[in-house]
Amino acid sequence: MFRSLGALVGDLLVVLLFIAIGIVQHGTPLTSQNIVLVGWPFAAGVLLGHLAIRAWHAPFRLWPHGVFVWAITLATGMTVRTLLGGGTEVFFVIVAALVTAVGMLGWRAAALFLTRGERVARS
After folding, report:
1. Would you say the C-alpha torsion 16, 45, 101, 107 has a positive or negative sign?
2. Other CB atoms within 10 Å distance of the CB of residue 58
3. What is the torsional sign of CA 104, 108, 110, 111?
4. How many other CB atoms are there within 10 angstroms of residue 22's CB atom?
5. C-alpha distances in angstroms, 31 versus 59, 61, 99?
6. How far apart, in whole angstroms, are the C-alpha atoms of residue 77 and residue 56?
7. Cα-based distances in Å from 3 to 8, 9, 50, 58, 90
8. pLDDT per residue over 55-65, tens digit each?
9. pTM of the full predicted structure?
10. What are 63-97's pLDDT values in tens digits?
11. How far apart (Å, rounded) are the C-alpha atoms in residues 123 and 119?
12. Fewer CB within 10 Å: N-end or C-end of the chain?
């Protein structure tokens, strides 16, 4: 239960960091309102991804859980931004894909490494 919640929080923190860095890089004030306005499509994607893949069964797994949650997050965020007239230029999509992939898959890889002793002890 706690790992599932931790995985959800970890993914949301990656999205929050990505959004905050983007806001600052574009010279926009870093306010909670701006974070919510820009970030909610990606946060919704994280939630949708966790539900769709049922990530609570293996929250730290890279494949398929981490990859699918990342892909659903990215697709949802970009789709909602497009539907609402937000920017989805190719360079933005590439940067968003790379940054969120490194973050969302990176923390999972670290968690797998740090919990490897538990898996070895169980088997």
Report:
1. positive
2. 17
3. positive
4. 17
5. 31, 33, 21
6. 21
7. 9, 10, 13, 9, 34
8. 999 999 999 99
9. 0.92
10. 999 999 999 999 999 999 999 998 889 999 999 99
11. 6
12. C
Q: Length of the chain, please?
A: 123
Report percent pLDDT > 90 for the chain.
86
Dihedral over Cα of 107, 108, 109, 112: its sign: positive
- Which among 4, 1, 13 is positioned nearest to 43, based on CA atoms? 13
103 is written with which tokens? 């973050």
Residue whose tokens read 């999509």: 93
Peptide bond into 64 cis (omega under 30): yes
Task: Identify which of 110, 107, 84, 111 has the alpha carbon closest to the alpha carbon of residue 16.
Answer: 107
